[in-house]
Amino acid sequence: MARSADREPRRVTAERDGPLLLEGPVEVTLDDGRVVRSDRFAVALCTCRRSRRYPWCDTSHRKRSKPAKPPAGNGR
Question: Which residues contact 24 (CB under 8 A, 6 or more apart)?
Answer without folding.
Answer: 38, 39, 40, 41, 42, 43
